[in-house]
């Protein structure tokens, strides 16, 4: 049997992109910070997003059946912290500039890339819901993708990753 702390310690060594996942519906805008996001298929374009069922905004994602994955750049560390904190939804969304695409879920205007999605299936696995999300629109940052830095999480700390320029 693998102990929870052993698993968590091992997983801390898996480098992951940092994302803010957002939704919007009758109850307003909601969001959370997540690293558990990955591509499933390009035909049709599909992502999976994992969310703890104990999160206070979980019910809103399930009800709304839409979300946007906003991939954060190095300059967004404060935003990641805000969406992982106990701040209210209103206080969280005051931290950035937001727009929307097809679904109406909030899109961070200067995210490296945003994937606007419809949640097509939800599976329960342990303490988390796994959202299977069909991508219906993509918005890529206008900044030069070769000079931008990505915000990643490794060994319980933020790091910045940039493209290596070859001479």
List the helices and strands and how they pair.
Elements: H1 4-11, E1 16-17, E2 19-25, E3 28-34, E4 37-42, E5 45-52, H2 58-64, E6 66-71, H3 77-83, H4 89-93, E7 98-100, E8 106-108, E9 113-125, E10 128-140, E11 149-154, E12 157-162
Antiparallel strand pairs: 1-11, 2-3, 2-6, 4-5, 5-10, 6-9, 7-8, 9-10, 11-12
Structure description:
- The chain has helices at residues 4-11, 58-64, 77-83, 89-93, and strands at 16-17, 19-25, 28-34, 37-42, 45-52, 66-71, 98-100, 106-108, 113-125, 128-140, 149-154, 157-162.
- With 167 residues, the protein is α+β, with helices and mostly antiparallel strands.
- A 7-stranded antiparallel sheet has the order 3-2-6-9-10-5-4, with helices on both faces.
- A hairpin with a 5-residue loop joins β7 (98-100) and β8 (106-108).
- The longest helix has 8 residues, at 4-11.
Question: Could you write a compact summary of the structure shown?
Answer:
With about 170 residues, this protein is an alpha+beta fold.
List the main descriptive attributes of the protein structure presented here:
single chain; about 170 residues; alpha+beta; three-stranded antiparallel sheet; globular
Pick out the low-confidence regions: none
Based on secondary structure, the structural category is: alpha+beta
Strand-residue proportion:
over 45%
Compressed to H and E, one letter per element, the order equals HEEEEEHEHHEEEEEE
Please work out how many helical segments DSSP would assign.
4
Largest sheet: 7 strands, antiparallel
Distance between the termini: 50 Å
Helix content: 10-25%
Shape: globular
Q: Strand order, biggest sheet?
A: 3-2-6-9-10-5-4
